[in-house]
């Protein structure tokens, strides 16, 4: 379980920058077990192509978003999923205490991006009826090399200028155990293609309706 220093530095970075990157947020052992389960679910065809928009053709959707996902079912979680879930609940409570974010619900899924797949630039919350406040991603890839690609490219709104060619972004590589959180409404981001399978757990904390 991450200690309170992790929660504190996450809250401070969120408050200052609107996002936080926390290496080693989960232990190598937990990350390994989660990766094992994600791979097993993939082999058992439990991960399915993620959805974008309604009625869009499969081929078209895949150009926008190529990951395969499986939601955690809070009523039927494995031991390792429960361990991860409990850490996210602890993080949620800590952020509520420190930043008064009013985070209530949490939903999360495994995601596997096969080689060459991507998720084009998007925002996780774009409609007013969407209650998502905070996006989180935790990566599950041992020995990731930057030359293998697969960065999360986070566009930093506070630093943008009027000239699109000088857009400011930060690339975050999907190293095992690293946690990223960012304000869902503020940050456009994309997942760049990689040369190997890219495993993660993505999730969202929402306000009460
Ligand atoms: O895997 C990532 O780094 C980000 C995934 C993402 O943007 C999403 O699932 O909405
Ligand atoms: Fe996203």
UniProtKB/TrEMBL annotation:
Keywords assigned: Dioxygenase, Iron, Metal-binding, Oxidoreductase, Vitamin C
Domain Fe2OG dioxygenase: 104-207
A GO molecular-function annotation: peptidyl-proline dioxygenase activity
Keyword Metal-binding assigned: yes
Cofactor section: L-ascorbate
GO biological process, any: cellular response to hypoxia
Record InterPro entries: HIF_prolyl_hydroxylases, Oxoglu/Fe-dep_dioxygenase_dom, Pro_4_hyd_alph, Pro_4_hyd_alph_FE2OG_OXY
Source species, domain of life: Bacteria
Pfam family, one: 2OG-FeII_Oxy_3
PANTHER family: EGL NINE HOMOLOG-RELATED, HIF PROLYL HYDROXYLASE, ISOFORM C
Name by which UniProt lists this protein: 2OG-Fe(II) oxygenase
Organism: Pseudolysobacter antarcticus
């Amino acid at each position: 379980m991450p200690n309170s220093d992790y929660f504190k530095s996450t809250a401070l970075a969120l408050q200052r920058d609107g996002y936080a990157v926390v290496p080693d947020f989960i232990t190598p052992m937990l990350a390994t077990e989660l990766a094992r389960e994600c791979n097993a679910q993939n082999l058992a065809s439990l991960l399915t192509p993620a959805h974008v928009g309604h009625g869009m053709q499969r081929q078209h959707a895949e150009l926008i978003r190529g990951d395969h996902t499986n939601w955690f079912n809070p009523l039927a979680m494995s031991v390792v999923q429960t361990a991860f879930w409990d850490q996210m609940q602890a993080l949620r409570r800590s952020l509520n205490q420190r930043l008064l974010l009013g985070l209530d619900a949490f939903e999360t899924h495994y995601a596997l991006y096969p080689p060459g797949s991507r998720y084009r630039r998007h925002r996780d919350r774009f409609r007013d009826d969407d209650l998502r406040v905070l996006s989180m991603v935790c990566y599950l890839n041992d020995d990731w090399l930057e030359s293998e690609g697969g960065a999360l490219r986070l566009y930093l709104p506070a630093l943008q200028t009027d000239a699109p060619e000088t857009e400011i972004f930060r690339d975050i590589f999907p190293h095992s155990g690293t946690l990223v959180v960012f304000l869902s409404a503020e940050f456009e981001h994309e997942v760049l293609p990689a040369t190997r399978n890219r495993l993660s757990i993505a999730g969202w904390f929402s306000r009460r309706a």
